[in-house]
Amino acid sequence: MRILMLGTGPFAVPSLRALHASKHEVLLAVSRPPRGRKPLPAPVQLAAESLGIPDWQPETVNSDESRQKFVELQPDLLVVCDYGEILKSETLAVARLGGINLHGSLLPEYRGAAPVQWAVLNGDSETGNTVIRMTPGLDAGPAVGVDRVAIDPDETAGELEFRLAERGADLVMKVVEQLATGTEIVVEQDKSQATKAPRLTKEHGQIDWTRSALEIKNQVRALQPWPRAFTDWQRSSGGPLRLIVHRVALCGDSASNTAPGVVVATGGELVIASGKGNLSLLEIQPTGKRAMRVEEFLRGNSVQVGDRFS
């Protein structure tokens, strides 16, 4: 089949590589244009260039100019993953078979930009990938492929997303082959079960020590590698010091008279009471410095039992 690949972020790269290695022809790789003060090429753009696939970064794929370019290429199918723009029905219609989209959740759960992060944040034990037939709605089309994946209780969102991206490429290829032979199985989503997964912000990273140790651990895992969880050590002198928290471990129950956010053990470890249970900080990053194991941090910083984190 003649395929147009639409993707921007790293989640889409394994699918692009799998399509390129297959018997199908990738006519063009389309990604969102670079943004920001120091714009960098998108991961999909870099991958396409390394594979020798033509690439393009239009402001929008829903313009008349974009649709005309696609029509001239005569694609059979649009394959979309981690692209960043909802395609209108007129855009989907440029391909003979329309479009499919790889999404990193078991739809209709976690529709939106951050499905992997929200699954980890909520402490889910299972997630997966869904390939849908695309409609103009947000992740709302019928499913044509599903792959269920267990979540390790210590796995970060970044680690899980990498696994899902690799497995997702296999699922995309399976669905593409079914579409080529007309053997796909279509299952409508139950809209009543839909949940949302909006993009996380830096504000999601602030640790609230009145929450349980397990909830905070899930927060730390979910916000890796971005935007990352953080807390402030209320030092007796020098003002508060912000610490980015990279890795933690559950550490027993807190004493009944220990307030959340108070240090209950220090020395070779740093254990803090939460609303339910204690949490041991394992790897942290002081503001303006590199990440380090907590033992290294404690050698240069005098954290005492009874100090407060907020």
Automatic annotation (TrEMBL):
Matches recorded under SUPFAM superfamilies: FMT C-terminal domain-like, Formyltransferase
EC number from the UniProt entry: 2.1.2.9
Residues that coordinate or bind (6S)-5,6,7,8-tetrahydrofolate: 105-108
CDD domains in UniProt: FMT_core_Met-tRNA-FMT_N (cd08646), Met_tRNA_FMT_C (cd08704)
Keywords tagged on the record: Protein biosynthesis, Transferase
InterPro entries, sorted: Fmt, Formyl_trans_C, Formyl_transf_N, Formyl_transf_N_sf, Formyl_transferase-like_C_sf, Met-tRNA-FMT_C, Met-tRNA-FMT_N
Domain of life of the organism encoding this protein: Bacteria
Catalytic activity of the protein: L-methionyl-tRNA(fMet) + (6R)-10-formyltetrahydrofolate = N-formyl-L-methionyl-tRNA(fMet) + (6S)-5,6,7,8-tetrahydrofolate + H(+)
Pfam family, one: Formyl_trans_C
Domain Formyl transferase N-terminal residues, every copy: 1-175
Domain Formyl transferase C-terminal: residue ranges: 199-301
Classification via PANTHER family: METHIONYL-TRNA FORMYLTRANSFERASE, METHIONYL-TRNA FORMYLTRANSFERASE, MITOCHONDRIAL
HAMAP family noted in UniProt: Formyl_trans (MF_00182)
Role, per record: Attaches a formyl group to the free amino group of methionyl-tRNA(fMet). The formyl group appears to play a dual role in the initiator identity of N-formylmethionyl-tRNA by promoting its recognition by IF2 and preventing the misappropriation of this tRNA by the elongation apparatus.
Sequence similarity: Belongs to the Fmt family.
Protein name: Methionyl-tRNA formyltransferase
